[in-house]
Amino acid sequence: MSDGGNDLEMRAIWRSGVGQYWPMVWLRVWPRQNDETKKANQMKFCYSCGKVSAGEPPFCSKCGRSYDVRLCPRLHKNSRWAKVCSQCGSHELSQPQLHVSFRWKVLEFLIRASVAVFLVYVSLIAAVELLRRPQIQTGLLVIAVLLGVLWWMWTRLPEWLREFVRQSITRKEHDRER
User: Fold this and answer.
1) Which pLDDT score is estimated for 151?
2) pTM metric for this prediction
C-alpha cells in the first residue's frame, strides 16, 4: 500500500477477549523514522513551573499540570474552564497550567527572535573578521589543497579497494547502531 510516496503497511492489533481491532496502527516501513522519533523533536513549555518537556506529553513532568486543557482520568480533553468532563461526566479534572495571554506569547517570540538575530549577526561578524586575517586565509588554503590531494588519491585507488573501505565503514556504523 502506498500513501503519499511513503510505503506504509496497515496492521490491526487484535485486542484479546474483546473481539475488536484496537487500535488501528500504521507501521512505517520506509523511511525508518517513525512518528515517535518525530515527536521527540517537539517540545512543550509549562508556564507554571518553567520546565520544558520533550514530545507531546499530556502533563508537565515537574508540576503535574496539564497543558492548556483539563483532562479527566480517561484523558478526555476539556476546556480549561470546564467543571465536569464533557464526554464521561467525571468531576475529577486535572489542573491546567497558568493561562498566558496572547500578548505575552508574542512578546516571548519577539524576544527570542531578536536574540537569535543578534547571535547570528555577531557570529557572521566574527567569521568575516577571522577570514580577513592572512594567517587564517593561508590555513584554509592549506586545508583545501590537502583535501584536494586526498580526494585525487582516493579516485586513483582501485575500485575493489574503495568498495572494501566503504563496506568496512558502513559495517562499523551499523554495529554502533545496535
Assistant:
1) 93
2) 0.39
